[in-house]
């Protein structure tokens, strides 16, 4: 008998005298709580997202759609990037004004190969204003999870206002729980017992979020 079977057996024995409840899971708990705090306009919600992203030490930029290629080119140049990882479904126009060498998102790429890439540019699934969180779900414009965790510099494009929601409860219905979800609140960081902050330990050292109007 495996350890798993032993644990499940103990759970079954513990529940043996518990009456069966035919209530569907989604109805078992009342979910009549508030789904967001306050009554904000779309503009104020986007402003809150920008404030909270900056509070997490992400670098936030705002531009019109037509200005996006020039801005991405400027951000890559500002980091001195010589290579950029490109998800397969990324809009080619976003990189139209940069000559930085493109690197494809390939299943066979090793961690060492990805670590040699300077930057990565992706879209996102949704952005949450109240928590300053960007969620990636592995869609074609975002690529595999690892390409946003290994390179040191991540440029993430958020389409405003359609990809911005006020709160986590309003974000969840937009996400497929079967997809590889990555929740990002600022650049990767950790601190020890002395509260010495170290960035880039388990993700990009620099996160730049572009809010495209």
Automatic annotation (TrEMBL):
<dbReference type="InterPro" id="IPR003741">
    <property type="entry name" value="LUD_dom"/>
</dbReference>
<protein>
    <submittedName>
        <fullName>Lactate utilization protein C</fullName>
    </submittedName>
</protein>
<dbReference type="InterPro" id="IPR037171">
    <property type="entry name" value="NagB/RpiA_transferase-like"/>
</dbReference>
<dbReference type="Pfam" id="PF02589">
    <property type="entry name" value="LUD_dom"/>
</dbReference>
<feature type="domain" description="LUD">
    <location>
        <begin position="49"/>
        <end position="212"/>
    </location>
</feature>
<dbReference type="InterPro" id="IPR024185">
    <property type="entry name" value="FTHF_cligase-like_sf"/>
</dbReference>
């Amino acid at each position: 008998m495996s350890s798993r079977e032993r644990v499940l057996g103990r759970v079954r024995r513990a529940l043996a005298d518990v009456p069966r409840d035919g209530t569907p899971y989604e109805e078992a708990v009342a979910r009549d709580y508030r789904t967001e705090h306050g009554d904000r306009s779309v503009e104020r919600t986007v402003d809150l997202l920008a404030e909270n992203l900056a509070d997490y030490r992400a670098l936030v930029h705002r531009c019109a759609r037509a200005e996006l290629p020039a801005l991405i080119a400027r951000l890559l140049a500002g980091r001195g990037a010589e290579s950029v990882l490109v998800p397969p479904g990324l809009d080619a126009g976003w990189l139209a004004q940069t000559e930085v060498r493109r690197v494809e998102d390939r299943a066979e790429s090793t961690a060492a190969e990805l670590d040699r890439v300077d930057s990565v540019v992706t879209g996102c699934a949704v952005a949450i204003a109240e928590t300053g969180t960007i969620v990636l779900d592995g869609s074609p414009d975002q690529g595999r999870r690892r390409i946003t965790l290994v390179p040191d510099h991540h440029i993430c494009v958020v389409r405003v206002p359609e990809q911005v929601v006020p709160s986590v409860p309003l974000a969840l219905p937009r996400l497929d729980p079967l997809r590889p979800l990555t929740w990002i609140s600022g650049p990767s960081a950790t601190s020890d017992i002395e509260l010495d902050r170290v960035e880039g330990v388990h993700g990009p050292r620099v996160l730049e979020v572009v809010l495209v109007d």
